Sequence to fold (382 residues):
Amino acid sequence: MAKSIKVRAKVNGGVTTVKTLISHPMETGLRKNKKTGKKIPAKFIQEVTCMHNGNNVLTANWGTAISKNPYLSFKFKGAKSGDTLKISWMDNTGKSDSVEAKIK
Amino acid sequence: MKKLAVIVSVICMLAAPFVAQASSPEQDLKNFRKYFTDRFPNVSFQDFANGVYAVDKGHREQWEAFEEFPPYDIAIDKGKEIFEKKFANGKSFANCFPNYKKGIRQNYPYFDSNKGEVVTLEGAINACLAANGEKPFKWKKGPIAQVSAYIAYQSRGKTFNIKIPNDPKAMAIYERGKKHFYAKRGQLNMSCADCHQYNSGNLIRANTLSPALGHPTGFPVYRNKWANLGTLDRRYGGCNKQVRAKPFPAQSDEYKALEYFETYMSNGLKVNGPSIRE
Fold:
């Protein structure tokens, strides 16, 4: 199964810039199915975390305002080239995914 | 004397259509390019492939930020999956498009002299499915756009060189596309040229109009408005609706002709699909 998270991480002068593109419908729960008229159930990421060397460097609390297939970019200090990052997400339906990536 | 008059008038009648024919495609292409290079003297020719971003600095900055991790990446991956998956009969898309790794996007649309019609990339994708007993994809978005994106991505950097053979059917399709481009339509009574040629670079409400030179090179596009990937005929339908004209069906003869004309007009530019647009 293809992973839902794509990551690119690069360190420059002590600061690591992480860019991720997550595949997720981010359904708000307010949209209606055009054919049946019923509301499409909400399915959106509630938490995104990034771990580095056992440390939690980012926790993002998301809601329905974040758009479909979200792009997330952030910077943090204290990592070096070759280190491993672990990015994970969990949505309101209990589904989750995570991926590990090396910092360039 | 009467016989001479008849002969002369017959010759004149035969000559008339050739004299009346306005201009050749080659001449049209020259004029078309000249219009845009004159209108935007500071844009390098190859940059026209980037649409509105070639002519608007503010939009360009936002676009370059998007391109760092483009949303169409997901579509390319999906397209690759679909492309490589074997059909029920054991074959796959690679059998229909054997040279896809070398780049093939730049050859579409082309005139098939056996069938007497224009073949677009999406048309070829569905023809491949049909020939192998598979259900064809729906036009405009979804799997067809994803496979088209994958093929376009493999073809990036190749130069468009659409040919219009010396065949009356091909010429008729070209002329039909050209006519559509310049014909006013819809409740707003506007033509493609009104926005994308004569008003290219100007504002339409809060958006800047892209020049038609370079229009098709980046398709299929991830359009921010759609938050999704779409094909050229998805956009054509949208454009027709925007001037409150009834859109033609996707991959109809009318839109195929328009694509033939538009792509020919972008000859010399390089494939840069899939791309991000407004």
